[in-house]
Amino acid sequence: RVRVNNNNPPDFDWQATTLRPAGNPIVNGAGSAWIAGNAAQNQNKIQIVTAHKYIYSSTPVELDPMYNPDGGPVFNPANQNIAGTAENNYWLAIQGSLLNTTPRTFRTTEDLRELLQ
Fold this sequence. Notes:
Layout: E1 27-28, E2 32-33, E3 51-56, H1 86-95, E4 99-106, H2 112-116
Parallel strand pairs: 3-4
Antiparallel strand pairs: 1-2
């Protein structure tokens, strides 16, 4: 839940398809909320720029080995089949929506390594 500004209640629903905070701000792309109008400067109204939902479970899970950003192949945007190096992960992040509404499940403390990649 998020407070958009002092005039709106903390109303942010992860289950909503549009995922707009209270006040119905300008939405860019697939649910990415941006600062509306002239609120970008000297105003008290701000919007969510990026948000992720994480779920914790105590059930163990097998994880793929971590990628080695230094030893991996050079990323080429023309070939999306290259392994997910740091460059590829960054490219996918800037090409996709800033607001990821797909829940991620992390089951052990070992899963923290995936968050840190």
